[in-house]
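Hi Y.,

Following your request, here is the sequence exactly as I used it, all 362 residues.
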Amino acid sequence: MDSFDEYLPLPWPKWNISLGYSTKKGALIEEYLGEYMYKWLVREKLLNIGCPDESSVFIYANTLQRTRESAKSFVRGAFKNCNISVFSIDSKEMDPLFNPVIRNDSEVVKEPIIKEMKKKLMDLDLRRSYFELEEVLDIKNLGKCKLEGQCRFDVTENEIYYKLGEMPLVIGPLSFAHMIVDSFLMSYYDGHAMENVAWGRIKNEEQWIILAQLMRESQNVIYNSTLLGRQLAKPLLEYLTSAFDEENPPKFTLLDGHDANLYSVLAAFGVKEFWLPEQYESIPIAGKLVFQKLYDRIEKRYLLKLDFVYLTVDQIRSGSKISTKNPPRRRNHILHYSHLKERQENKYGIKALGLKKGQRTQ
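Below is the corresponding structure, written out as tokens. Let me know if you'd prefer a different format.
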């Protein structure tokens, strides 16, 4: 699979924004979620009604336009007309805190990770999903098929890419299929007319579920490893630990990063692959991983509650207002607080790349 365009039966639907930029729909959704989260914080008595003190809220975004604008949209919804700014380091490069790259390529670390990824690839059975994608693309009538015999996705092997300082990847038909289906789904989310989503060839929910399996399994192979997750998420885990251990931390901190950050943090905690009701993805756009440090007075111990807050497929496509009558969905998990420190311990002497709490470069 060596050229994207060669596998498209018709011209690709046009977008009015550059790749990696926030859309109007994305900004609207973040505003809605911001307003919903603010009201929840008030109900939980973490914040009072009105503008919070600047010291009680900290908003930190990665350097990409999409993450900065998403954070600003969240602030507009949550803290309208308040003097709450978004912090982001002054750089065109990925902020080290949010950069999910390999930090150790020693054999003692690399070998079990590669072995686990290869086993996942071997255990996959994506024939039905590949066939569905081939039908949507009408691949049998493309020149690549007729002239070169490249008519199926499942006849080419996938390769694992593991290199120090870079993101882990699966290179091959699985990643190629993931990219195509992801583009279909982003068009659907953004509200494109159905004839402009996969050329009108995805007709029902069953097709979406079958196709989305290619995305879920691609991400599962790459990210669903506790050992790898601790590497990729190491700066974030250290940041979370320092934030919760700080004597007077902000009452609310928002870190605006990427789906790879959420995958790797969840994997580091040992949260295995899960299915979200009313969704096709494991980590849909605008998803929020919410951490709460709680105290159990009976057992006299701290607990860490993880809530994954997300929107349904229909909520994203319709852009409907999020409220108590139309709430986001959530999945939760509770751990002993010590598990956070265990997950970020430097087992292999990996040097951290992240910023410490309060250390700003701008």
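Strands lie at 57-61, 86-87, 159-161, 169-171, 252-256, 288-296, 301-310, 329-336.

Thanks again,
Q.
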